[in-house]
Amino acid sequence: MAILASQGNLDEFKLHLKACKNTKTSPSDIMEVMMHVAVYAGIPRANSAIKLIKEELKGWK
User: Considering 24, 39, 52, 61, which has the largest number of Cβ atoms within 10 A of its Cβ?
Assistant: First the structure.
């Protein structure tokens, strides 16, 4: 996911994000990955992915 976010491949990123729900990956683990993306690929790339994450997390229970 970090590579997809850092390259700006947000359509593919969204698919993997939905798969995280099925594997019961915690939202905090996903956000931790985005912290690394922000450092290595830049804040704009991380922010784009974080926006998708926040939208997707609304549907998680």
Answer: 52
Domain ranges for the chain: 2-57
Look at residues 39, 51, 30, 31 and name the one whose alpha carbon lies nearest to residue 6.
39
CA distances from 8 to 17, 32, 40, 48 (A): 14, 18, 13, 8
The pTM score is 0.87
List average pLDDT for each run of 10 residues in the chain, which is 61 residues long: 96 95 92 97 97 90 66
Q: Which pLDDT score, from 0 to 100, does residue 59 have?
A: 79
